[in-house]
Amino acid sequence: MSHYAYCRLTTIQVLPYCIFNVCVAALIEWLDAKDGISLAISDKGHAFMNLMVAFLIVSRVNISIGRYNEARGYLSVMYRESRELIQNMVVLTGHNTDLRAKEWRNNVSYKTCLLLRVAMGVIDYTEHNVNVWELEELDDDERAEITKFLFYDTGSSRNALRWAHGVRTEYEENMRVPIRLAYLLRKEIRRQRSELGQCLTIGEESKMMSSIDAFMVGYYG
Fold it and tell me: Domain coordinates of the chain in residue numbers?
């Protein structure tokens, strides 16, 4: 619909209410001038309503700012924990220069960045309407691993739609994807026991896992 057509339609819809309002105002003025019957409303009511509206507007603005600052705090947590996980991994395993260790560090770093990218994709979904399992950063294996456990019909016969207990929207399914990626990242960290021969101690591995836990706390927030 063009802008002109939209304005015309809006005018047609509003015009009857404007005519009714003018007729009521003219009737009040006519009664006041002819018979001395005043139907005017005291300005005290208007003053009180102005006060209430101003109070409600300020309250809503404060609530909105509070939610915005809270969301910024959670977003900062996700970025911080992504950096901490990668830095701790490099510090704790950097002495191992074996090719398999380098490949493992690269996989963990990539999956960490991918988890952050997907989480941001969920946040941006309401604006861009792009499903996070369709992001170009995902390779075919990762995309198949994600869509296999979605309750939304993605056109794949391997997904988990047959197990769903109700209809879910795309937005709800997008919110589940980072949870699945966090699971895959935990598996990748755990894989160091078999691939690298226990390169990390139990405490060091737990430290890396705790970064994922903190990341997910920020995401859930």
Answer: 75-220
